[in-house]
Amino acid sequence: MDVFKKITQNQLFKVTSMSSFSILVRLITGFLSSKVIAYFVGPSGMALMGNLRSFTSLLESVGTLGIQNGVLQNVAKNHQDRAQLNHFIRLIFWTLLLFSLLISTMLFFGNSYFGKMIFNTQSEYNFILNFVAFFLPFQVLHLFFITVLNGFSYYKKVTLISIYGYVVSLLISFTFIWYYGIFGALVSVSVTSLLLFLFSSFYFFKEFSFKIIFSRVQIDFATLKGLIPFGIMSLFTAVLTPILYIFVRNLIAKEVSIEASGWFEAMQRISGFYFMFISTLVSFYFLPELIKTNSESEKIAITTKFYKRVIPTFALVLIGIYFTKDFVIQILLTSDFYQVRELFAWQLLGDFFKGMSLILGIRFYVVKDLKGYLLTESISFLVFFIASWFLIPIFGATGAVISYATTYFIYFLALVFYFRKAIFNS
């Protein structure tokens, strides 16, 4: 089958348009949120929020058992067999709910231990982890619902949920920060989860009724075993990445200042705004299409389409951002973040190679190549850790983004080398 009959120009345009609109909303709400955070809590508060976000991201990944891509693949391939799919969805729903409740309990009783890792000596913020513990199951189920909807290729519904989430998150953050300052900013990180859960559950339960979900659950170890490779791959990255970024922020705070750590976090927030365009396309469009293909030639055709139609546009966006960096800082942040301008060049370079690596790295999930995934990811984590360890004491926050760019350049080369036969022999 010609892959271009499956992936029409009209399809790509529709998905890109929806994705672009979602990103536009995200940019607007992100801009307002960043401005409020920068104005009311400053660089030091942004550094603390960065650590808390990394920690909650880690908990979400562990709570979902890292099987989101496995769930997506199962739904995309078996959505016609409703009996089998209902059994699968019911099993995963209860597995994730019970596991997330277990993690929440551990976090609630161990908040002082985890608080030291996130907030260092500022123990007055430890109680905020109780909010994280309470809302974690809602966030885990929300991520599960989104994955299922994505497996059905319900791009519009997923986009609408994202838009609702961005707007509500902004309103909650603004309200909490206005009344409670840094405490409100930290609490708002987790509170949004409940409303996101309500949005996604509305569409999810239209597809799977309460009767289906609350029917008797049959434990199926064979099904769970089939998800193990996805879980290992996702958890390896999803657990180590937040830990590594917490390490980097804490090292910057130790070697320079907590304000410098906040500059680094501000740069990551800005990066997250524009990188969402490319990551959304890969997650919501290219990954499901790769999963549906059967031949290597089709996979290469989809990958080629990504590089020809997405990367050039992304490169132009990065160039534009570099030449308008002072304006970006002025709009998104405050004068306290002026030093962030020194971080743009290396961050943008790293993001370019990250974008180049994204579609190749996704192949590991599609072909379930656990060995290759762990090998290449280990290389990237090791490079980032070692480079940061040596460069941050010398160059401060700039050393962190130099390490970031170096990591993704080497990671991209590692992926090209690993997939060289598929790339050059097709």
From TrEMBL:
Subcellular location: Cell membrane
GO cellular component: plasma membrane
Spans traversing the lipid bilayer: 21-42, 54-76, 88-108, 128-149, 161-180, 186-205, 226-248, 268-286, 306-324, 344-366, 373-395, 401-419
UniProt key word Transmembrane: yes
A Pfam cross-reference name: Polysacc_synt
Chief localisation class: membrane
Keywords for this protein: Cell membrane, Membrane, Transmembrane, Transmembrane helix
GO BP, one annotated term: enterobacterial common antigen biosynthetic process
Record's bilayer topology term: Multi-pass membrane protein
Domain of life: Bacteria
InterPro entries: Poly_Biosynth_Transport, Polysacc_synth, WzxE
Protein name: Uncharacterized protein
